[in-house]
Design brief:
- The chain is of the alpha+beta class.
- It folds into 3 domains: 79 residues, no CATH class; 100 residues, OB fold (Dihydrolipoamide Acetyltransferase, E2P); 297 residues, no CATH class.
- The protein is built from 18 helices and 9 strands.
- The strands form 2 sheets. The protein has a 5-stranded mixed beta barrel. Strands 8-9 form a two-stranded antiparallel sheet.
- Strand 2 and strand 3 form a beta hairpin.
- Helix 2 runs antiparallel to helix 3.
């Protein structure tokens, strides 16, 4: 037992030190080693004060892991700020499209995973990914498609003083842009790419069934719910969803995947599966979902976090959820340290999942004492648990706060699993019967009309979106401090009630 506890402490200490080292180097690269020196001295003084072998072992692990984290973080920052040696060179690129093109005013853009890069003189250039910009609605450019382009490499540049676009793309592995007039579709060479291409084509066929049989803008939302992304909605509706705090329902995030997996578990139990089997049913659904949308980095990250946490929740091993989450986050941060600071999706996914792990058990036990009929209530509690942890980060990054977000989520979220289930049935039936797809499409349209009514109502309400320009890190610390105090009190209250 002592050995198991020691392993647990060493694991937690090492994982935490590695993550803190990475975060320190990414947020404070100039003083990272200075901070490390002070922390090392404090740890050594603590060890001298408590002369035990276990304390010495933990201290060594903390010092070594934090040093490794600092090295990883500083190397990533140095790579992001390295000279642009390949800039202004004309190159021929063969690559794989990693995401559906985003339509801008005069062009479309996507990210390419570079398979080969050749300059005019025949030399190769070491580039892993680049931002491809082409003419608006250029034909043939779609997810997982293999393409060949010829263009001039240009460095990524910031277009706003308030948003570091250079580092945002660097966190995605992109430092160069490529403006191409012509895009030649190439043949997928590897089995891996061919398999993803088949799934991408299947997804496009499924999306076309939705868009044909569901009236707009409900059809755009139904496709977004199933495959992620709000780009199918008009800009005005995107703004309304953002103002009411409901953009996340069409975003591939840890929260979204967790809600989907949780709904699949409940559905599995409803159709007669044991909870363990329902969990595997949900895991399979999430894996298929991630593969179907092309397995972009955000979806993979969200899928890993959502599946791990839901599996632990379903198996009743809540004590393992927190260490596994931190291990997952630390591994991701070690592979790509820049996501800790510059990938908002990573931050929101991590915090939403953390909120579900910490907040949900407290509020779920509290509600269970008063209401034994959960189901929809469970979905609402999961939503509230995630929202509590992501609200301050959203306010910090986007300088906005949606006062009606929680109420809007409560009114909309219980309907989302039903809509997704009906949409899936419609798509499957649509491959066999046009008549069935048309009538089930009307059902989806009617159900989603409620979502648009709620969004439109709250978006037009007074003070629907508040500007919080001075929401600093101190406010974030205060928010989490208050939430932490409430959770401690709530946990003690639940334990007291259980003893009674």
């Amino acid at each position: 037992m002592v050995l198991i506890m020691l392993r647990h402490k060493v694991f937690i200490s090492g994982t935490g030190a590695l993550f803190v080292g990475i975060a320190t180097a990414v947020f404070m690269p100039m003083v990272a080693w200075f901070v490390f020196g002070i922390a090392t001295i404090m740890v050594l003084f603590g060890v001298l004060g408590v002369a035990r072998m276990r304390s010495v072992l933990i201290a060594i692990v903390v010092i070594v892991c934090s040093a490794i984290g600092i090295v990883c973080g500083k190397n990533a920052v140095m790579w992001a700020h390295a000279p642009y040696d390949n800039a202004d060179n004309t190159v021929q690129i063969i690559g794989i499209v990693l995401q559906d093109p985003v339509q801008k005013t005069f062009q479309q853009q996507t990210i390419l995973a570079v398979r080969s890069c050749t300059m005019e003189n025949g030399a190769t250039c070491a580039i892993d990914r680049l931002l491809l910009r082409t003419q608006r609605y250029a034909e043939g450019l779609s997810m997982r498609r293999s393409v060949r382009v010829t263009c001039v490499l240009t460095p990524i540049e910031n277009f706003s003083k308030t948003f570091d676009y250079v580092m945002y793309l660097a966190a995605k592995g992109v430092r160069y842009a490529c403006d191409a007039e012509d895009v030649v579709i190439a043949k997928e060479t590897g089995i891996y790419d061919q398999a993803y291409r088949v799934l991408a084509d299947l997804r496009m066929r499924m999306e076309s069934i939705i868009m044909r049989n569901v009236v707009q803008p409900q059809g755009a939302l139904a496709a977004g719910l199933l495959f992620g992304g709000d780009e199918r909605l008009s800009q005005s509706w995107q703004d309304k969803f953002s103002a009411t705090g409901l953009t996340h329902i069409v975003a591939v995030s840890g929260y979204n995947v967790t809600v989907i997996a949780h709904a699949l578990i409940l559905f599995g139990i409803f159709i007669g599966l044991w909870r363990k089997h329902a969990t595997w049913f949900a895991i399979g659904g999430v894996i298929l979902f991630v593969a179907m949308i092309g397995a972009p980095a955000a979806a993979v990250r969200a899928g890993i976090m959502g599946v791990i946490v839901l599996f632990l929740l379903a198996s009743g091993r809540m004590g393992s959820a927190l260490p596994v989450l931190f291990l997952t986050g630390t591994i991701m941060a070690t592979i790509n340290p820049l996501i800790v600071r510059y990938d908002i999706g990573f931050q929101l996914s991590f915090l939403a999942t953390l909120g579900i792990i910490i907040v949900y058990p407290v509020v779920e036990r509290f509600v269970r004492q008063r209401n034994h009929t959960l189901g929809i209530v469970e979905i609402i509690l999961v939503t509230v648990s995630a929202q509590v942890f992501v609200v301050p980060v959203i306010a910090y990054h986007f300088q906005t706060f949606a006062p009606y977000s929680l109420l809007a989520n409560i009114l909309v979220l219980p309907l989302i699993p039903i809509v997704m289930a009906v949409t899936v049935v419609m798509v499957i039936g649509g491959f066999m019967s046009t008549w069935f797809a048309m009538w089930s499409g009307w059902v989806v349209s009617i159900l989603l009309s409620w979502v648009f009514i709620i969004v439109d109502f709250f978006a037009k309400a007074p003070y629907a979106s508040l500007h919080v320009e001075r929401f600093s890190l101190w406010w974030i610390a205060a928010w989490y401090g208050i939430v932490g105090g409430i959770l401690v009190y709530g946990r003690k209250h639940v334990i007291r009630c259980n003893h009674r």
